[in-house]
Amino acid sequence: MKKIILVIILTSLSFIGFSQDTSSEKTSIQVDFDKKIGDMSTMWAWFGADEPNYAYMKDGKKLLSELSAMSPVPVYFRAHNLLTSGHDTLNLKWGSTNVYTEDANGNPIYDWTRVDKIFDTYLARGIKPLAQFSFMPKALSPKPEPYEHNWKPGMPYNDVYTGWAYPPTDYKKWAKLVYQWVKHSVERYGKKEVESWYWELWNEPNIGYWKGTVEEYCKLYDYTADAAKRALPTIKIGGPETTGPSWDKAAEYLKTFLNHCISGKNYVTGKVGSPLDFISFHAKGAPKIVDGHVQMNMGTQLRDISEGFRIVASYPTLKHLPIIIGESDPEGCAACGMKTNPQNAYRNGTMYSSYTAASFARKYALADYHKVNLKAAVSWSFEFENQPYFYGFRDLATNGIDKPVLNVFRMFGLMSGKRVETKSTSKYDFKMVRDSSVRGKYADINALGSKDVNSAAVMVWHYHDDDVTAENATIELDLKGLPVGKLNFHHYRIDKENSNAYEVWKKMGSPESPTQEQYAILEKSGQLALVESPSYIKTNNGSLKLNIKLPRQGVSLLKFNW
């Protein structure tokens, strides 16, 4: 007899259990595991950071190992600054490999030591690169000074964009650098391995990261793609990683690039078009402070995603290509902590985890709606080495202590197979969240279900943009399409009391230098936790009805197997 596992994910702050409720307002959620609607892809298993050198540092290696362990497929990692000149650094929004310098006669000198160290760290943990050709080495920049910035949280964001952001002085030298890097990667890691990676050009060229024109970006893309394909004809390369597709100018930038790849004159070959193996863009939300509390804006992020999908779908020859949302986050600056940017105070606790659960479900729905091939949604969130505990960066862990949001991805790792039909009496569907976000009297209480050969799952969230206390939701779950008989039941939880190192740290008095004993407690409290001992629960001819009390913000995982 085949073994089958059922997993249920629920967002909450606390759990009252399976019980009858006398509340007048209830939300009914139906899940039919026999009605499949699409793939339960692992598009969530992609992460990234500005600072590539953190990967091989103490806490970076620890977190990469955890990311790999939680995913049933290889995790992909995207990083900036892989070609930037300089030295190992702990500076925010910076990193360097110093792969390219020149001798006194202008001849190239290649040094792969540091970029190899980064990729070796990934591969040793089963993680694959989304390798980025960026940024401009100092020796190829037309305005090399100033080059390395000294940005700190609270400083103007434009201080970041220095000499590394310019087009090259010599496109052929740039192309040779691209060719040599890909060739070196194949020699070091093998053709089959490098074929499994994704490669891209630059980051957000429609804003300060690129000091050239859109035409110059297209020119650089042609030189980059041509050189990469000469080194490895089967390489997967794409772009343009623009941000804000819902902005008019950003949309035009994306369309200009796509038109160039389809019908433009190639700057290298003189022929029509340029190779394009995937399409990438970014989508961000926009939290703010309202009446003394954080108010998220999921709608802003979803509108970016929806418009990006719509643009891609408008090209008949491109709509089949994989789409990578290269950064998909609640807002735009991972290194802007909550002390300098108080609207980012959502990041340490359960607001971030419930937002993640609800928003990722809507990414699946938007891809279905636009009929596009969503490959990945990169969470631009990693860790910041040697920074204060729980400073409020957009990160998954702080000083080696996992935050609640990381446990949402652990839960996603338990969902697989096909997504199944779910219905909720909630006021919201994905279009309403996209168009209006989650505001006013009603919260967003909905579900995402999946079923595999030996497993099934349903994710349920109780989310609202306003980070304020509210009454619990009473939810009636009606699950159909399960096997007949007893199910072994495990219940995991993210809330104020479970899987939440932040609340434990605050109860300790917010120590900046935890003792060894305190650190061990924090480390354990950051893991995904059971809230009760495993038990058995019986279905009624393959159906199961549960009444659940679900407070605002948080995540629960109910797992059944037999």
From TrEMBL:
Assigned keywords, A-Z: Glycosidase, Hydrolase, Signal
Keyword ATP-binding: no
Domain of life: Bacteria
Record domain Glycosyl hydrolases family 39 N-terminal catalytic: where: 29-522
UniProt signal peptide: 1-19
UniProt-listed Pfam families: Glyco_hydro_39
Family indicated by similarity: Belongs to the glycosyl hydrolase 39 family.
PANTHER family for this protein: ALPHA-L-IDURONIDASE
Protein name (record): Beta-xylosidase
Species assigned in the record: Emticicia soli
Organism lineage: Bacteria, Pseudomonadati, Bacteroidota, Cytophagia, Cytophagales
